[in-house]
Here is the input.
Amino acid sequence: MAHGSKTNEEVVLDKSRTLGEYAGLAARGFLMGAADVVPGVSGGTMAFILGIYEELIQSIRAAARPPFWKALLGLRIGEALRAVNAGFLVALFAGILLAVFSLAKGLEWLLVNQPVYLWSFFFGLVLASVWTVSKRIPRWSPLLVGAVIVGAVGAYILVGLVPLQTPESPWFLFLSGALAICAMILPGISGSFILVLLGKYQFVLGAVNQRDFVTIAIVGAGAVIGLVSFAQVLGWLFKRYHDLAVALLTGLMVGSLRKIWPWKEVLASITDRHGAMIPTIEANVLPAAFNSEVVIALGLAVVGFVAVLVLDRLANLNEG
Here is the structure.
């Protein structure tokens, strides 16, 4: 809630933190980065769970606003850094980058060799997220329920789209980065999955693993432009229509559950330029038998579910 004459945005960004709190932000960033590496799981969902989503959006949004640019062009560097909540952003993105570079190979291995276990954990995580995020709306109305339905249907359709065959030219890599980052900060819509739809997920993941910094820089430049631009829209929505925005984002998470259902049957696939098989059409199915794999998968789903409830409880205690 605002104090005095401050705007909502100023209150969100007006925070001083201890070194320990910045370490906590880096840890939250690490969790966001780990989620973003997996197609179908959103780092935005993690930001929502961890209670930093709105501050993240407003901080990014500030990078395109006059106070930042006036201070920067006037060489008032300290003032410019405060205008964009730089300490928050640096700590968070340091954690995200650490996760992307340290976990990419491990998560890539799990996606290939143990997909059921990986998806089960994230299914439980996202399912619990729907519950915890929906509690942020104090009073539900038919309009808000409608927003949930619209978000859910939109995400359900989006995650069922067939991946495209696309070029590897710099302009398309730039565009892919911009589109993926827009999805990455939306709870329920995975930036990695957008790269899958654009036919660029394995290409970009390979660039990260092989330290192809030219490709990383091109995709990263697109991501920066897309991030700052899209944050303007999200920031405006949260300031003007907070509960409606939360309801819509809750629906996006509901619809995304289609993508992360653990058991799938591949109906069609393509072979990429490296000879790897890429599923293009998949159907969600029930397990063929109740065996040890199912028991472990259910256990991991419960772990993911409980982890979110614990994180939500800790966030509430900190706010209290």
The radius of gyration is 20 Å. The chain has 15 helices and two strands. Residues 8-319 form one domain. The beta strands are 264-271, 277-284.
